[in-house]
Amino acid sequence: MTTYDDRASLTDLTATVERIRSSVEGVIEGKPEVVRLSLTVLLAEGHLLIEDVPGVGKTMLAKALARSIDCSVRRIQFTPDLLPSDITGVSIWDQQRRDFEFKPGAIFAQIVIGDEINRASPKTQSALLESLEERQVTIDGQTYELPSPFMVVATQNPVEMEGTYPLPEAQRDRFMARVSIGYPSAEAELQMLDIHGGVNPLDDLQPVAHAHEILKLIEAVRGVHVAESVRRYAVDLVSATRTHPDLRLGASPRATLHLLRAAKASAALSGREYALPDDVQALAVAVLAHRLLPTAQAQLNRRTAEQVVQEILQSTPVPAAPQQSGLSLGRGYGQQPPRRL
Questions:
Q1: What pLDDT, in 10s, does the model give residues 161-194?
Q2: Is 94 exposed, middle or buried (0-12, 13-18, 19+ CB in 10 A)?
Q3: Beta bridge mates, 70
């Protein structure tokens, strides 16, 4: 395992992230928090679900992130007639070799953009389950590993119900985070008219990072230190969703794991070798809300999962982390965990 034992190494890797962030923000104006969350999910080895109304730049964000990294990119337009084999691939009989030859599907890329994922049938949606969790595809009894890094960025419109198939709980749980872009501010929309009015900014977007740099970033994130108190805090937040009276389905243990991985990535993006309770708090809504199912009474009272998570954040005690002492990004840590800043 590669370790980063000095501050300079972390600084160099952070510079790579800044290049990607600047590249994406040149296309998505006025949404730095959305861009940061996208990078957090990428470095935490997760998958991102972008859910918002039409026309706010969901696909634009996914394409900008993909084009900013020199990785293989495939786009899948989900439609009702899309077949599982269109995603995973299919074995075709080769007359000359007299044997079956596997033709990889669109999932065999490092960055996969799934546009309007909820327009495909449940059978087609289920073709993504294995790849989202295990980063592999099994076809005709043969298992094929997916390239690394691997990230699925899926989009869906929450307001269009006709001709759509809501994602089942098992599939939503495999997405590390859900983000809503929202409408831009007036200033950002004016800037968008100036930039996008004559040309498509994606046409001039060039890669600013290579796949091997992303792998180094991911390796660095794995080495970020998480104190016992911060891990306990994440577990307490997730456990509270399972007993909350307004929820009929709480967050899974996978959600706890995703929350910790995202917190470590957020710490690395901030230039820290250790995660804080603040990292967990900042990501709790994005990581947990899309996995929760409100009760019928809560829905009648117009209570959303996001509101419930915010309530849990307010009622759960925040740990006071001990004194920081000589932590480094990698295997060797100081004798004491970090103090909360």
A1: 666 788 888 899 999 999 988 888 888 888 778 7
A2: exposed
A3: 210
Distance in angstroms (rounded) separating the CA atoms of residues 270 and 274: 10
Q: Of the candidates 289, 318, 19, 13, which has an alpha carbon nearest to the alpha carbon of residue 177?
A: 289
Q: How crowded is residue 176: how many other Cβ atoms within 10 Å of its Cβ?
A: 29
Q: pLDDT tens across 201-246, in order? A: 787 888 999 888 899 889 889 989 999 999 999 999 999 999 999 9
Report pTM: 0.86
Q: State the Cα–Cα distance between residues 135 and 148, nearest whole angstrom.
A: 9
Partners of 77 in beta bridges:
115
Contact 192, 56 (CB under 8 A): no
> Which of 72, 37, 66, 46 shows the shortest CA–CA distance to 286?
37
Closest to 283 measured CA to CA, from 316, 306, 253, 252: 306
Residues with Cβ < 8 Å from 320, sequence gap 6 or more? 229, 340
Query: 3-state SS string over 192-206?
Result: HHHHHCCCCHHHHCC
Q: Which 3-state string (H, E, C) describes the chain? A: CCCCCCHHHHHHHHHHHHHHHHHHHCCCCCCHHHHHHHHHHHHCCCCEEEECCCCCCHHHHHHHHHHCEECCEEEEECCCCCCHHHHHEEEEEECCCCEEEEEECCCCCCEEEEECHHHCCHHHHHHHHHHHHHCEEEECCEEEECCCCCEEEEEECCCCCCCCCCCCHHHHCCCCEEECCCCCCHHHHHHHHHHHCCCCHHHHCCCCEEHHHHHHHHHHHHCCECCHHHHHHHHHHHHHHHHCCCEEECCCHHHHHHHHHHHHHHHHHCCCCECCHHHHHHHHHHHHHHHCEECHHHHHCCCCHHHHHHHHHHHCCCCCCCCCCCCCCCCCCCCCCCCCC
What gap in Å lies between CA 242 and CA 41, rounded to an integer? Answer: 24
